[in-house]
Amino acid sequence: MSQNPPLLRPDLARATVPEMARREGQPTIGMVSLGCPKALVDSERILTRLRAEGYAISPDYKGADAVIVNTCGFLDSAKAESLDAIGEALRENGRVIVTGCLGAEPDYITGAHPKVMAVTGPHQYEQVLDAVHGVVPPSPDPFIDLLPASGIRLTPRHFSYLKISEGCDHKCKFCIIPDMRGKLQSRPAKAVLREAEKLVQAGVKELLVISQDTSAYGTDWKGRDEKFPILSLARDLGSLGAWVRMHYVYPYPHVRELIPAMVAQSDASGGLILPYLDIPFQHAHPEVLKRMARPAAASRTLDEIAAWRAACPDIVLRSTFIVGYPGETEAEFQTLLDWLDEAQLDRVGAFKYENVSGARSNALPDHVPDEVKEERFARFMEKAQAISEAKLAAKIGSRIEVIVDEVDEDGATCRTKADAPEIDGNLFIDEGFESLAPGDIVTVEVDEAGEYDLWGRLV
Predict the structure, then answer these.
(1) 429 - beta bridge partners?
(2) Using one digit for the tens of pLDDT, what is the confidence trace for 26-35?
(3) Cα angle 75, 169, 326; round to 5
(4) pTM of the model
(5) Which residue among 97, 204, 228, 379 is least packed, with the fewest CB closer than 10 Å?
(6) Contact, 331 vs 360, CB < 8 A?
(7) What's the order of all strands across the beta sheet hosting 243-246?
(8) How much is the average pLDDT of 63-80?
(9) Can you state the angle between helices 370-393 and 330-343, rounded to 10 degrees?
(10) Please, are residues 442 and 416 in contact by the beta-carbon 8 Å criterion?
(11) Residue 74: pLDDT band by 50, 70, 90 thresholds?
(12) 271 within 8 A of 242, measured Cβ to Cβ
């Protein structure tokens, strides 16, 4: 049982490859999954397809006939992390297939690691399977190799990421995701709902809706009946009886129409969607946003935040920001701090700006020195921490629902409706927890608060 670290990188998702029994002679593939939840979903789909073809899945390099490394290319530091993972897999196993966002730059990978056996780009599932077949031919036994109805998942059994679209139509200067993953491609609503239903039937208690731009879901469909299909999709997902958490929601005006479903959840009068929005604001000064080519204006977002809170006082807002963007002056950074004071966001993460190969922001003038970025990052997080601490202290004495993530000899690690896995806080129960199990949803009374986490007792 550990407390939530305050500086988690908000672009990471932790994958846990499950242990699986292996029959004699069964070909085995290892998996290393790096990057964000969207990449984790890609890893799950690859492993599900491989398992259906008769491959066993290994949680480590040993005993695997080959290893797939699903890479991240969002930041230069993430690229370096991916290259390190590839190098480790080569040393430990030797037979390595690379996929994911960094796979969009095959020469970059093979230049550093010429011995990799294949390189494929993001969400190129067929190409990954072809590469695996070339290295390790399948050997299925339909009488033994059984696949769970929900497929292979790399998250705990009680929550799951649900990817509703791929790609992005925005052209933010600091981001190369559209170059790597293409334009917005929304999955059919029936396919999303069918997947969600299977997950809930398999015991999933929380669905985490992810994409590059959740608000824009379905707007790439020509001749659609509904102007904003995310609204009906959210309502349909909310009818399944699981917690539904919305991530990567751009603050367009139609987001207000999601709030009534959150009010129903907040009042415990129905399933519907959690009163929680994860919104990538990135900055607050209009000139910085203009240099970023962001599709939002800080003055209007404050109005939107006020409208959301007026409609649903319990709503929790999370966001990420970039500090030290090229040309950011001290006055512009101070505007960001003042905006954060006014916005009073509940959950906040931050990046220190990094150049990324291929990003248009690299060519902007007046890059901020590293020591200034570091100092601004520290000031920003200090303010965000103070806001978080005050908001959590106000919860002492209240009764809230939590979902149990983990139970060990020290206690139960849980999350409230206000907390997404990995990136937000926890609620800890250290007495009377022995009967709890992961996935349980229970009511607690909050009796202690910290900077990011809560403590409570069962009621």
Answers:
(1) 412
(2) 899 998 988 8
(3) 40
(4) 0.84
(5) 379
(6) no
(7) 159-163, 206-210, 243-246, 276-278, 316-323, 347-352
(8) 88
(9) 10
(10) no
(11) confident
(12) yes
